[in-house]
Structure formats: C-alpha cells, structure tokens
Design brief:
The protein is mainly alpha-helical and 261 residues long. 44% of the residues lie in helices and 7% in strands. The strands form three sheets. The protein has a two-stranded antiparallel ribbon. A two-stranded antiparallel sheet has the order 3-4. The longest helix has 21 residues.
Length: 261
C-alpha cells in the first residue's frame, strides 16, 4: 500500500473485487469458504436443490463483510474506488495484491511486463481450498451430428488441445490424467495453483438452474453494502445485510422450486 503526501491511496494494499455482481459475490465467496469450510451456496439435501449457508454461519459472514467495509472506509483502509481495480489494476501497478483465477497470470505478464510478482495459494482459515470453474461441453441427444460432436468434445480433452488452452488463455485444465510438467517448468508462477498441496480442498459450485439471477441479485446487495461507510465497525447493520442476501437468494431458489428444505 502507498499513500501520497495528503494521505490518499496511490496504490492499494489489495485490490478487492468491487464490481460485477455475480463475479463480486463469487470472489467474496472465496474468502468466506476459507473462513467457514463451505460455500455460500451448497448442494441441498435432494439432487438439484441448493442450500444457502449465510444464516448458518452468520457471525463469520458478518465478519467477512466488516473486513471488506473496513478495508474500504475504516482505519484499515487499503483500497479505493478511485484506483484501477482487479487484474488491470494489478498489472498497471495500482495494487500490491489481488486474488484471481489462473488467467490473471498470463494477463499480468502481457499487460504489466515490468511488474515483479509471484503467486500463492489461498490463505488458510478453518479450511484451505481453491474454487474450480467447470464449463460443460454437451450435445443434444436428438442432434443429427451427435457422434461427430462427441468426437470433437473428446478431441478438446486431449493433451494437445489442453496445451493450447493453457498456453493461450492461462486457464488451467482440471485434468489429473494429463501432463503439464513442461508448462510448469517454463511458467513456475502457476505452481501455486496447479501443483497438489496437502489438505488443500478443490471445490465446485453447486449445480443451479437459477445461478445467473441469484448471484446477480445477491451480488447487488453485497456491492451496495461495500459503498456504505456507516457499516464500519457496525456488526448489527452488517448482520441485516447478510440476512437480506440470504432472503434474496432463498426467494429466487424457491420460485424456481430448487430451494433445499
């Protein structure tokens, strides 16, 4: 973190994810997971249903929110909306730290070639783990090109195709049966996220047909709270925000008939 002569931030201590509702709640969830040991949205009791865990972990969720608010407005202020944010902010030298997916490594090397940086796994709380994002490749069962499409999908999972994906995009393929040692040798900054670490959990989000609407609307509640300086050291009002996030999520899941009992 760096301040100018007037005390204004010139460089953030950490660039918090403040924009993009769905992405914002997801990044808030990264820290929540370490603190709680489960995600904000978990698989429900019945297949296809979703459970919202904020109320079950209310005190910790409140603390996570207060940490963000205090880092934006309070005595522990380390970030400011005036600065460039997220990966672009880090690559431009406007932030000292951020957390992001592996594509950020490639982005920083390309757009901030003079930035001297390294990588590390998520810090340990109750647990320690990394979120894995899955894209589904599928073909309609009624398709006249079903066999050809499946062949294409299988080809995309072969070593040569995954090498191109990793090298060009920076996203790390989630395959244990492929060899990326050549890439790690050339790009050691990826070791923190691609090599196995003892007791490091790898987790996926719960399947959720209401995902876009739910995360967007819950994320909007969270981002409004980030801008509210009255929440600094104010656990009672922070609790109201967390309970509102729970309520918004549960109403959407209930409307879609996928709220876990």
């Amino acid at each position: 973190m760096k301040k100018d002569a007037s005390g204004e931030l010139e460089r953030a201590g950490i660039s918090l994810r403040l924009t993009g509702p769905s992405g914002g709640i997801q990044k808030f969830g990264y820290l929540y997971y370490q603190m709680v040991g489960e995600q904000i949205f978990e698989i429900g009791k019945k297949p296809g249903t979703v459970r919202v865990t904020l109320k079950d972990n209310l005190d910790i969720a409140v603390q996570a929110l207060l940490d963000h608010v205090n880092h934006l407005h309070g005595a522990r202020k380390v970030d400011d909306w005036k600065l460039k944010h997220d990966t672009q902010g880090f690559a431009s030298g406007a932030a000292s730290m951020l957390f992001r997916e592996t594509w950020g490594i490639a982005f920083i090397k390309k757009n901030g070639p003079d930035i001297n940086f390294d990588t590390a796994p998520m810090p340990k709380g109750k647990v320690r783990g990394a979120f894995n994002y899955i894209e589904i490749l599928s073909v309609n069962n009624q398709s006249k090109l079903k066999e050809q499409t499946w062949e294409f999908i299988r080809m995309l999972q072969e070593q040569e195709a995954l090498n191109v994906l990793l090298k060009e995009s920076g996203y790390s393929p989630l395959r244990k049966d492929r060899d990326f040692s050549w890439f790690l040798k050339e790009n050691p900054k990826y070791k923190a996220v691609m090599e196995d670490i003892a007791d490091y959990q790898q987790y996926l989000e719960a399947p959720n047909t209401a995902y876009e609407e739910m995360t967007t609307r819950v994320g909007e509640v969270l981002q409004e709270a980030f801008r509210d300086a009255t929440l600094v050291d104010n656990p009672e009002d922070a609790k109201k925000v967390i309970l509102k996030m729970q309520d918004v999520a549960e109403k959407i899941l209930k409307d879609q008939d996928i709220l876990s009992e």
